Amino acid sequence: MSRGARGGASREVITSRQNALVKGAREVRDGRDRAHIFVEGLRLCEEGARAALSIESAFFTGSLSDAERGSQLLDTLQEAGARLHEVSDGVMESMSDTKTPQGVVLIARRPPSDLAWFERRLAREVSGAPLVVVLHGAGNPSNAGAMLRVAEAAGAHAVVATLHTADLFSPKSLRGSMGSAFRLPLWAGAEFADVLAWCAAKKIVTVGTSASAALTHAEYEWTGPTAVVVGSEGAGLSSSEVEATGAAVRIPMRAPVESLNVAAALAVILYEAARQRGFQLADKP
Asked: Residue 273: helix, strand or coil by DSSP?
């Protein structure tokens, strides 16, 4: 390495974009390697290092290792057993999923998001009435990530993503969630009907969102076991999907505005639920 090799780090700076390790990282970035996730950026990599991620390797530039925060992150990763690889700025640009790379990328094993794991996490971490978010058909990964962030910030206990929702562990979704994807119990790839059946079996009331609903989000009682169901960015939930849920709410809006961004709508609903439940959001660690 050009700046003094750490234990377990590459001895030489990788300068070829065709390097096998670099090509493998791009396969993860592009979703061709589904067994791993691509984590990029200093803040998000710090969150990944703090979470229970199984980090296999880290790619970094010399400017990152020269900075105090970057050096501390690399030390933490090395202690956790990750393989460290210094790369040139050009190689980092070829790997990056952003216009302005921050000089660090992690490759980690994809965290579990199956139903069995989800139920174990939920049972272990939730006491009292659960508040679950169901993302159905949210195709924009940045929006999906933002909704994970909103869910955690507003005190929701878990998130379910149906089959046609964006990958919650894609690079854009991870940037949108800013670490929430590492901490929240997630169930991904579920059929919509299976989610509704699971909620019914657990006595969790599903609440859809519809502009024609009789009740506003503030009139609904959110203190019981509840799953908030939101649809795609453009179409929302279909009428049949709303009918399949146990209840429906609408968010009042001044004309001529007819709709909100789905992440903004979810935030409005969840913070009302938090208010009713008496969550001490400011005191949450």
From this structure: helix
Q: Could you give the CA distance from residue 51 to residue 179 in angstroms, rounded to a whole number? A: 8
Contact by Cβ (8 Å): 148, 230: no
Q: What is the CA radius of gyration of the chain?
A: 21
**215 Cβ contact list (under 8 Å, min separation 6):** 247, 248, 249, 250
Residue 220 and residue 207: Cα distance in Å, rounded?
A: 10
Q: DSSP labels for 235-247?
A: TBS-HHHHHHSSE
**Gap between the Cα atoms of 254 and 155, Å rounded:** 27
Identity of the amino acid at 20? A
For residue range 90-134, list pLDDT tens digits in order: 999 999 999 999 999 999 999 999 999 999 999 998 988 999 999
253, amino acid identity:
M
Collapsing DSSP to helix, strand or coil, 109 comes out as strand
Residues 6+ apart with CB under 8 A from 5: 11
**Can you tell me the distance from the alpha carbon of 242 to that of 123, in angstroms, rounded to the nearest whole number?**
28
Kindly compute the dihedral angle of the four CA atoms of residues 32, 36, 38, 42, in this order, to the nearest 10 degrees: -170
